[in-house]
Amino acid sequence: MPEPVITARQLSKQYGDFTAVDGIDFDVAPGESFGLLGPNGAGKSTTMRMVGAVSTRTGGELRILGLDPDKHGPDIRSQLGVVPQQDNLDQELRVRDNLLVYGRYFGLPRGVIAERADALLEFAQLADRAKAKVDDLSGGMKRRLTIARALINEPRILLLDEPTTGLDPQARHILWDRLFRLKEQGTTLVLTTHYMDEAEQLCDRLVVVDKGRIMAEGSPAALIREYSSREVLEVRFGSDKNAEAAERLQGIGDRLEVLPDRILVYSENGEAELERITQLGLEPITSLVRRSSLEDVFLRLTGRSLIE
Amino acid sequence: MTATQAPGTGIRRPARALYAGNARAVVARGLLATRSSNLLVVVSGFFEPVFYLLSLGIGFGALVGTVATSTGQEVPYAAYIAPALLAVSAMNGAIYDSTWNAFFKLNYSKLYQGMLTTSLGPLDVALGEILLALLRGAMYAVGFMVVMQVLGLNLSWTALLALPAVLLIAFGFASLGLGITSFMKTFQQMDWISFVMLPMFLFSATFYPITVYPEPIQWLIQALPLWHGVELIRAMTTGAISGMVLVHIGYYLVMIVVGVVLTTRRLRALFLA
Ligand SMILES: Nc1ncnc2c1ncn2[C@@H]1O[C@H](COP(=O)(O)OP(=O)(O)OP(=O)(O)O)[C@@H](O)[C@H]1O
Ligand SMILES: [Mg+2]
Hints:
Number of domains of chain A: 2
Shape of chain A: elongated
Strand order of the largest sheet of chain B: 1-2
Number of helices of chain A: 11
Structural class of chain B: mainly alpha
Largest sheet of chain A: 6 strands, mixed
Mean pLDDT of chain B: 90
Bound molecules: adenosine-5'-triphosphate, magnesium ion
Strand order of the largest sheet of chain A: 5-6-7-3-8-9
Number of strands of chain B: 2
Number of domains of chain B: 1
Shape of chain B: elongated
Order of helices and strands of chain A: EEEHEHEHHHEHEHEEHEHEEHEH
CATH superfamily of the largest domain in chain A: P-loop containing nucleotide triphosphate hydrolases
Distance between the termini of chain A: 38 Å
Low-confidence stretches of chain A: none
CATH class of the largest domain in chain A: Alpha Beta
Radius of gyration of chain B: 20 Å
CATH topology of the largest domain in chain A: Rossmann fold
Largest interface: A-B, 40 and 36 residues
Order of helices and strands of chain B: HHEEHHHHHHHH
Largest sheet of chain B: 2 strands, antiparallel
Mean pLDDT of chain A: 93
CATH architecture of the largest domain in chain A: 3-Layer(aba) Sandwich
Strand content of chain B: under 5%
Number of helices of chain B: 10
Oligomer: heterodimer
Number of strands of chain A: 13
Radius of gyration of chain A: 22 Å
């Protein structure tokens, strides 16, 4: 296995008495696409900021490209591309100037920056908006510009903190497509998300984090295999009858998960379970059989939904 | 892999973590951004001291006649207040960028946060922003010097030395202004700055000698930066240069160093902690 580009051991971050990241271990291999999946407040952004060498760890070990961020912050940052959770584009500059100026922060020669800026505007599908004001861009365009900006220094690792949160489905798909291309070109991606479809689409491997700790690690498929069944049957009985129905469903499927509005039945064969339920004389208002997703993994691991 | 232990918090990081030698990228960004801002807003600060000079210097000056400088020289009233207003003009320009503008960038636009995710260090950002503020101060001041020359208020060839002196004054105010602003979190706190600036402007031997005040007040005024700027410039434009000039210069050098150090530390604490 090649030398990892990121190594974290017992990595922790404390804010006063509060522990935001509580001793996490992970490695990221070059060219890998690695995800942190977790609910609000899990410590994803805090971890990303430590990896991005803009936040000092309060415990544990961290190496980025073999360097300690405490001692080599600028050296590390010069080889990273960062897409923060909240866009911080330069509102006072126009679209293309955002790229040019950002390139200069890395001390790159003007000629090189100009060339890259044009290529990146193409890549981000913003070439026709080069002279636009940042404020006039849509949310999706801003996000793409932020990604383009993060690539101006040809980073070895691209850090993306919730790249598609707040975008409509179409904008998300455009973004996923761009990120997929980067991945194919061999850029190491580290991304956080609380969308399981995003994690499934983009991540080779991910960790599920909750309350600053890693709950599980693996590829999306392996996690689903390990922590969930192949299929899930979702049945609704109406909120007042839910608990009562749950009593009578005991023993059906591999496992039950009772949520306030519905019951999830984990099984290798959802249709067969539905059959058994109707045989018991129970009549669900609605029923749905679907494949297991990372959402189910998360529910299993924490007893809570990913998106509250 | 480096084999060294990770240091705990509070261990000094090497200078390289503070400075990438690329403050000019920050300056270049500022110049580009200024291009898009409203020209009227940019130059309005320049006119304020010019209006004071025209109204008080010429109008009021006709009633007052001459005034004695701190070195005892009798000069026409307009020539007395002009160097003071020159210092004010350098101060205004420097303060314009380093207070309200910087406050917005620090707390709302996330500009510095973005800069510090690149290979720039906090000292690059601090120096770049201070240089920009200084540049505006210098522009205001040079414009004001031209007005003075036209009105015949530069009484000695040493007025030429006022040029480097205004740079020093603008540098001092830009640097300390940014340092102080970096601690401000709310608009009310920012108002405190104006609350200090106005009396400082009015009482720092700007319009009359400070000898009109009781001794303790004089000491207080002499502790504030503008008085040193006013006296320094007045020495240059009236030609009465004494040893005190060195004290004034020293005051500004300290102010610059304090401001740069303060700003750098704050930027690091705010965005790299
Ligand atoms: N500067 C700070 N000071 C104090 N507490 C903080 C600070 N930054 C983050 N926290 C706390 O640390 C915890 C983790 O925050 P973090 O932003 O890393 O979560 P997250 O997983 O990114 O969540 P989200 O999905 O909402 O972005 C939260 O409880 C947050 O309130
Ligand atoms: Mg976050």
